[in-house]
Write a structure and sequence with these properties.
alpha/beta; Rossmann fold; 6-stranded mixed sheet; two-stranded antiparallel sheet; flat; membrane; transmembrane; Exopolysaccharide biosynthesis polyprenyl glycosylphosphotransferase; transmembrane helix; Bact_transf
Length: 448
Amino acid sequence: MSGRIGRYSVYIKPLFGLIDLVILNGTILFFQTNITYKILFSIYISVLWIILSIKNKFYDTKRFSKVIQVLASLIRQFLIFGLILYAFIGFFKQPNISRLEMGKYFVAIIGLITITKYTLLFLLSKYRKVFGGNIRKVVVIGDNKKTNQLIKIFKDKPEFGYRYQKKFGVKDKDFDLETCFYYIVENEIDEVYCSIAELSNDQLYRIVNFTENNLKVLKFIPDNKDIFTKKLIFNYYEYIPVLSFREIPLDDSINKFLKRTFDILLSLVVLIGILSWLTPLIALFIQLESRGPVFFRQLRNGLDYREFYCYKYRSMKPSTSSNQATRGDARVTKVGKFMRRTSIDELPQFINVLKGDMSVVGPRPHMVKHNEEFAQKVDKFMVRHFVKPGITGLAQVSGFRGEIETKKDIINRVKYDIFYVENWSLLLDIKIVILTVVNAIKGEEKAY
């Protein structure tokens, strides 16, 4: 299976946000506002700016966004932030604060952040155009007026960061989807644009399955802009309407940054607060029952189908067999049975989280040989690899953990995993972590 190549730059949006926070906190020093609790004010404006930015999608500026769209987002952001700013006076009872100086500060940050935002977006577009960075390789399936107009935009607007590679004419005599798929894989194409008007339902179905199973971004060019549904993501490239089949929240750098921060903080708490003293005890019990290594590692597939070593406490007798444990498996030790029942054997995976191979919450990673098997048998199985695998996941707290006994088990697990991929939020992660702890305390029937 091929992975997604040339992903969006992870650090662009967090960098934009960090620069704005520096402006917010640095500019106040130049005004005599008479703020008593300066550290509290700094925390207040920083936290609420971040929350407001996420709510307004302030940093969700597309590479094809127009100047007027950026201006609209700036206006929305500052209209609400102005209210937040003056609310500090009443909320924290600061009657001595100068309203006039606060007003000057507000006008100053509007100007500075606006100029900075447009400057950074301009530099980013020049970076794409001049240096060829932050590029997405694309192909177009279909040959009509709209596809040709879109291709012209790709060629004429290098600042958008799309590198047009090839067009496949559906009506051409030698057109073949398998040839198209082979080209996409071999040339490491990132995005596929399809003209809905020229493709049959069967062809669309095959293209959807191919892009899903090969981790390619699929977007549609409609023949009529009124055909899209609420489930599709609608954008304009200049004047050409383009539909995205699936939007993944964790593709957004702000969301990715929040999730990674949550992962690191929770991992440090577990590693320092729990594993630092628990590991020697676990090691002693493991060694008393069976000689061998304390830790067990196994190759798993993670983000973009990349392989990594997943860590666990050894819960089975040393064996040459790498098969998954089954009900009543004689290889599982007595201490191993307890660890598996309470999920303690999974705790070393917080090392994987800290390394960046895994997340605290996400689709559970499978053994490599099982992945290859399920990818062939279960539709959209590969969608799970659009995000990092997790120590726990929505499927696991919903009753689908442990051994895959029937095809229905893996199908339901994939359904929950895809729902998680498409509907991620930090609150959902926190909910899943809480449910995991509760289930670990109660013990789970399928944990063997």
